[in-house]
Amino acid sequence: MELVNPLAESYAAKYSSGETPLLRELAAWTRQNHPEQHMLSGTVQGRFLSLVSHMLRPARILEIGTFTGYSALCLAEGLAPEGLLHTIELREADATVARSFFDRSDKGGQILLHTGNALDILPGLEETWDLVFIDADKPAYIDYFNLVFPRLRQNGFILADNVLFHGQVLQETIKGKSARGIQAFNDFIRTYPGIETTLLTIRDGLYLIRKS
Ligand SMILES: C[S@@+](CC[C@H](N)C(=O)[O-])C[C@H]1O[C@@H](n2cnc3c(N)ncnc32)[C@H](O)[C@@H]1O
Predict the structure, then answer these.
(1) Does the pLDDT of residue 3 top 90, yes or no?
(2) Given a cut of 80, is residue 2 above it in pLDDT?
(3) Best label site of 1, 42, 115, 130, fewest CB within 10 Å?
(4) pTM over 0.90
(5) 89 CA → ligand 1 middle, Å
(6) 159 CB less than 6 Å from ligand 1?
(7) At residue 110, does pLDDT exceed 90?
């Protein structure tokens, strides 16, 4: 289900800042060559991620679910001068594409790409996160949150993508493993103590969560 009216989406894109040439090339490459090109964050969400990052000037960013690297490059735009972004991708082929684009970015030296299952890699990352972007397999969102939250600094932020899951969470009966995983995550966050939240209706839904 298309949640945002396509006319509103293109109007929003028209009145939002554009992509850098490298992001435009990455998006075009992904659309032409990747069977799951729908996974790309896209221009409006990409600019939103960049703006959030610029607002926070984070020293440490974590991304779970790199894909071809679009959102990582957007988030990296706002990194503090000595800051680092860790991003985790399960599939070697996607990680290779992402690395090739990171290497062409002036932020490439600040991006640490981990290849493997985030559930195995996260316990070994001894960082204190300022900003976390969760965008990998939907049934594991609660596990990712539980692994990451103790390492999120006070007043740090988590953004979780696809929390409207193409409108499937609005149905009376929620079918499919991913949609059910997202619904379970949304219910979990709704009553979780010590956080402040807004569920933003940008693109496929973005949960913005602050550790209070
Ligand atoms: C929706 S895509 C990410 C899109 C990307 N953040 C962007 O906006 O361009 C989800 C990615 O998470 C990866 N993924 C799925 N399960 C994972 C896991 N357990 N650990 C790490 N990455 C995983 C998938 O291979 C896929 O590339």
Answers:
(1) no
(2) no
(3) 1
(4) yes
(5) 6
(6) no
(7) yes
Q: In testing the pocket of ligand 1, which one of 45, 67, 121, 134 has its CB within 8 Å of the most ligand atoms?
A: 67
Percent of the chain with pLDDT over 70: 100
For the chain, the domain total comes to 1
Mean pLDDT of 142-150: 98
Look up the CATH number of the domain holding residue 161.
3.40.50.150
Decide if 154 is inside a domain: yes
Distances from the Cα of 102 to the Cαs of 37, 59, 64, 106, in angstroms?
Answer: 18, 18, 16, 8
CA 131 to chain centre: 10
- Establish if 93 belongs to a structural domain: yes
Does residue 101 sit within a domain?
A: yes
Ligand 1 contact via 95 beta carbon (within 6 Å): no
- 176: DSSP letter: S
